[in-house]
Amino acid sequence: MVRLHVKRGGESQFLLEAPGSTRLAELAPLAARIHNGRLKVQRLCSEMEELAEHGISLPYNMQGLTEEQIKELKLKDEWAEKCVPSGGSIFRKDEMGRRNGFAPNEKMQQVIKKTIEEAKALISKKQVQANVCVNMEMVKDALEQLRGAVMIVYPMGLPPHDPVRMEFEDKEDLSGTHAGTEVIKESEAQLWWAGKQLEETKLLSDYVGKNEKTTIIVKIQKKGQGAPGREPVISHEEQKEMMLYYYRKQEELKKLEEEEDDSFLNAEWADNHALKRQFHGVKDIKWGPR
Fold first, then answer.
1. What is the model's pTM?
2. Are 215 and 5 in contact (CB under 8 A)?
3. Which PANTHER family match (predicted)?
């Protein structure tokens, strides 16, 4: 299996394994699917952290309003009584005004937070350092873990307008958001390697050869964005180590220059003729009047 170290821009994302016989028309969409799946897990984790802290999302017409404005407009959250967390709730006001403030109790909060940690670990960029490949099964596993935690804490479900539920139902609206720009449609995905676009009509082996143990760094991006930046000759970590080495070397040279002093030449032990004068009995002779 050929190992692909997938990057987006200059940042590592995940490792992906594929046979050399894989057609690029299939590989690029697969990489995009994993990339988008990881983004969905990250968005869900972020929204579920808010869910654990401040409860369910308010209806759109109530978000951002003060309590006085809600009373004045005679607005009511009909979902607050339907979507009660298991074991009751504790009130934690959402300063952003997006959620109703009725958070799950401490025990249920821990269920959500622990699951978030486990899901993040599955699709983390640290998996690259650990030399662990990510596949769609791992992404689906992370999503199912998150879904299970929400069902435990909110057995009655979440409001249809809650971002967490919308993510699970693939109804999220990312238009006009930064998160939306990070998503790559499978039909628009392109892979680049060594400054070359990997053409969809070719096989992976057409570029990397027959060696199935090869590891290459590929960059994923949308069609029409042009060639991505080339990989640096040395990595960021290697560059830091080199800079640190030369800095230490420079400091050592400075120290040697500061300590360079030839005053020791006037010392008695540095006199090459001292021993000769001692044998001749002319040591410590002083000239001039006493």
1. 0.78
2. yes
3. CILIA- AND FLAGELLA-ASSOCIATED PROTEIN 298, PROTEIN C21ORF59
Q: Which two tokens stand for residue 59?
A: 């209806």
Under the banding of pLDDT at 50, 70 and 90, the label for residue 290 is low
Cα–Cα distance, 7 to 216 (Å, whole number): 11
Phi, psi of 243 (to 5 degrees): -65, -40
Q: Where are the beta strands (DSSP E) in 9-145?
A: 11-18, 89-91, 102-104
pLDDT tens, residue by residue, 204-234: 999 999 888 999 999 999 988 877 766 665 6
- Structure-token pair, residue 268: 């008695």
User: Residue 230 in contact with residue 197, Cβ under 8 Å?
Assistant: no
Inter-residue contact 6 to 28 (CB < 8 Å): no
Q: What are phi and psi of 107, to 5 degrees?
A: -65, -45
What is the tens place of the pLDDT at every residue in 10-31?
899 999 999 999 999 999 999 9
- Compute CA 122 distance to the chain's CA centroid, rounded to the nearest angstrom: 13
The 3-class SS string of 64-86 reads CCCHHHHHHCCCCCCCCCCCCCC
Question: What token pair was written down for 244?
Answer: 């640190």
The 3-state DSSP class for residue 245 equals helix
CB 117 within 8 Å of CB 80:
no
* Residue 37 tokens, joined: 């799946």
Tokens of 53: 């802290």
